[in-house]
Structure formats: structure tokens, C-alpha cells
Amino acid sequence: MPTNSRLMVMSIHTKHANSIMRGEKTVELRKTRPLVEAGQPVALYATSPTRAVVATCVIDSVEVGDPRELKDVLLERASITSAEYDAYFSDSSQCVALHIRNVSVLSQPITLDSIRQRRSWHPPQTWHFLNSDRVAAFMGSTLRTTLAEPR
Q1: Per-residue burial over 104-132, b = 16 or more CB atoms within 10 Å of its CB, e = otherwise
Q2: Which of 51, 107, 113, 128 is most buried (most C-beta within 10 Å)?
Q3: Highest taxon of the source (predicted)?
Q4: 35: closest CA among 98, 122, 103?
């Protein structure tokens, strides 16, 4: 199954989710590479205290490399400080930069409580994938169109 026929639910600290929704953050940094390609639809789950799916976006591209070599290029787009970057990648030899586009803030976030009313679920530590049937059962019609959007 092509990866972008599924919805990626990605957990992000509330501070960073807010930066994405304001348009300040266009790159999400990770230590491991998810199995995604350009065009992958993503639902952004903001962790505590928000505890809700707050926006959707699309993966524009994935960049993988040595954290030291990518730092200067990524810092501003990741909307973090040099100290935050260094602390995050201190024990990692790999930096994964998920470049995002088409951020759409949900007018009504989908709270963790409302998701759990539909089905038992624990937010992912990093990310999780849902096929279109699970999206409908899991989050209702709010995100159903995310999979149908043209890339």
C-alpha cells in the first residue's frame, strides 16, 4: 500500500504544534525516519496540555543526514534554538527533517477524549498510520477529506 494512501498521525509538543500553525515552523525534526514520501498526509496531534489533533499538513520532502551538517540549514525552519537542536541530537548520528506544506488548522480540534469515545486509543510517542477506513472510525468525518486532497 502506498504510504500516502494512509494518514500519518504525528505527536508534537504543543509549543511546536503552535509554531507550525502560526507558519513559523516548516520542518519537523526526528531522530528516526518514518516510512513516508512526498505527498504524505499528516494529522498533527498536540501533546499535553492540548491533547488534541489540531491541524493537518502534507509532507513536502524528507531530508536525512548528519545532525552537525544539517544544523545551520534547518535551525530557522525548525523554529528552535541552537541549544535545543544540540540537546535533541546529542546522542544521535542521524537527523531526519520532515519538510511540511499545506498546513490547515482545524477550526475545532479533535480532542483525545472525543477520539477515545469512538475507539480505544493512546497517542503515539512519535507517529502512527491510519488507513482511510480507520480515519473515519477513529476521528469521524473531520479528517476524512485529508486523504482525498490532491497532492
Answers
A1: eebeebbebeebeeeeeeebeeebbbbee
A2: 128
A3: Bacteria
A4: 98
Collapsing DSSP to helix, strand or coil, 125 comes out as coil
pTM (predicted TM-score): 0.83
Residues in the chain, total: 151
- Domain residue ranges of the chain, discontinuous segments joined by +: 3-139
Helix (H, G, I), strand (E, B) or coil at 85: helix
* CB 26, CB 77: distance < 8 Å: yes
